# Entry
Amino acid sequence: MSSIVTALLAQTAPDAGQQNPIFTLVPFVLIAVVFYLVFFRPQQKQVKKHQKFVSELQKGQDVVTQGGMIGKIFQVEDKTVTLDFGGGNKIRFVKGQIAGSWSDETGSSEKDLKEKK
# Structure
């Protein structure tokens, strides 16, 4: 019985030759590149576009907040925007909470809808 166990333990896999360690890293590098191109790059573009939009806010522009409130810009300051909701209701918002412009003709511009897809 011990000879069988010894024979089984002595067996090794056939030597397929040593692979270069770089070849074992290639799949991980390719996965990282795909993740960057699919997830991170588009998100960075969207953030830059939003930052540009927020920096160009002007008085009188109709906007929608991330909470869904629609109003007209009454005052623009360094970090905040005061929106007029009609009837004398004015609320200050942090600029980053302005989601986008609001167009009365179509509800939201068709160009913005196409870019979101």
In short: The first strand starts at residue 62 and ends at 65. Strands lie at 62-65, 70-76, 80-84, 90-94, 98-101. The chain is about 45% helix and 20% strand. Residues 105-110 have pLDDT under 50 and may be disordered.
